[in-house]
Specification:
Blueprint (H helix, E strand, L loop, with lengths): L4 E10 L2 E11 L4 E5 L6 H8 L7 E6 L7 H4 L2 E4 L11 H11 L4 H14 L15 H13 L5 E5 L7 H16 L3 E5 L3 H7 L2 E6 L2 E7 H5 L4 E7 L3 H8 L2 E5 L6 E6 L8 H7 L3 E8 L3 H12 L4
Parallel strand pairs: 3-7, 3-8, 5-6, 6-7
Antiparallel strand pairs: 1-2, 1-4, 8-9, 10-12, 10-13, 11-12
Helix pairs in contact: 3-4, 3-5
The structure holds adenosine-5'-triphosphate.
Length: 307
């Protein structure tokens, strides 16, 4: 089966500047894909090209096996922009009917889907309320209902939880997980890396219009190659034994603790024996997992932010 999104050397030039600069991406059907990068990295411009709203300056792009501008493809796309311009005079029901009709649903189907769509985003019972009376979080929920009302095969969510409280964020995560289970592909732009970590199967880090790194979370986060070792006494012999396995840094506030970053993940099984062979008592051995935030800062720090 073909992929949900494929780009090859995709490029967009504004006034002689390549804001998207040879971008290669693959998003599989039914996966949630996190698209991450600093301000000005070219994320929105890329999304607009994937939606057929901006014409590429070069390269290839295929969305759901076709051209993103094609009517048949567009009908299967959902989009929640970060800054949605809501028609504040409309009721939630009118707003969803309007967007369902734009997406090609009949008036009858649109009407039939609205209660379920509102319920799904936690707005049950609000159909007759005008959007002007909604809170920021309620508007974001309405925007999400709009993106999903026509049951798209691929949905783009740009910062979908920026206005939501912690309960709302968990609810949106559940919606994304349910979408994946239904086979819907989700393209998620978020600065909340913990959110991306919670729901995305794969992620790409972009900067200056190029993909710096892409892969599954497991590939990017890696197996535990760093450990906190608490042992007593921390003799020079113990230091030497651990330095044979990796880089050893003493903890600042704890005289019994060392941070060890292994040269090779296979050395993990040798840490405890190294401590014991130096006649020390092993008090704790805790694997350290990097998170997306530290990977992000590392990558972007090295390449410099675009903005
Ligand atoms: N229509 C336009 N005309 C000229 N320059 C543009 C246009 N749209 C975007 N740019 C420039 O392209 C670069 C990338 O912008 P883009 O909005 O794609 O970044 P982004 O990664 O989405 O950033 P953010 O996280 O801040 O939303 C920026 O330098 C921006 O000024």
């Amino acid at each position: 089966m073909d992929n949900a999104i494929e780009t090859h050397e995709l490029r967009k030039t504004y006034r002689g500047v390549n804001v998207v600069d040879g971008l290669n991406l693959t998003v599989r059907r039914g996966e949630a894909f996190g698209f991450l990068g600093p301000n000005g990295a070219g994320k929105s411009t890329t999304v607009k090209m994937l939606l057929g709203l901006v014409r590429p300056s070069g390269g290839d792009v295929r969305v759901l096996g076709g051209h993103p501008g094609a009517r048949a493809v567009r009908a299967q796309l959902g989009f929640l922009p970060e800054q949605f311009r809501f028609q504040t005079w409309m009721t939630a029901e009118e707003f969803l009917t309007f967007h369902a009709r734009l997406a090609g649903l009949s008036a009858h189907d649109a009407r039939a889907r609205i209660p379920g769509a509102l319920e799904r985003v936690g707005l049950a019972g609000r159909a007759r309320q005008t959007l002007g009376s909604f809170s920021k979080g309620m508007l974001q929920r309405a925007g999400l209902a709009q993106a999903l009302i026509h049951q798209p095969a691929l949905v783009f969510l740009d910062e979908p939880t920026s206005a939501l409280d912690p309960i709302g964020r968990v609810e949106v995560r559940e919606i994304i997980t349910a979408l994946k289970q239904d086979g819907t592909s989700v393209f998620l732009n978020s600065h909340l890396l913990s959110e991306v970590e919670a729901v995305c199967d794969r992620v790409a880090f972009v900067n200056r219009g190029r993909v710096l790194r892409a892969g599954t979370l497991r590939e990017l986060l890696g197996e535990g190659t760093a450990f906190v070792v608490r042992a007593r006494p921390l003799t020079p012999a113990l230091h030497r034994a651990l330095e044979a396995l990796g880089t050893v840094t003493p903890a600042v506030n704890d005289p019994d603790t060392l941070h060890v970053t292994l040269h090779d993940p296979a050395f993990a099984a040798r840490v405890a024996p190294a401590v014991l062979s130096a006649h020390a008592e092993l008090l704790a051995l805790v694997p350290q997992q990097p998170d997306l935030e530290s990977i992000f800062l590392n990558l972007i720090g090295r390449s410099g932010s675009a903005a």
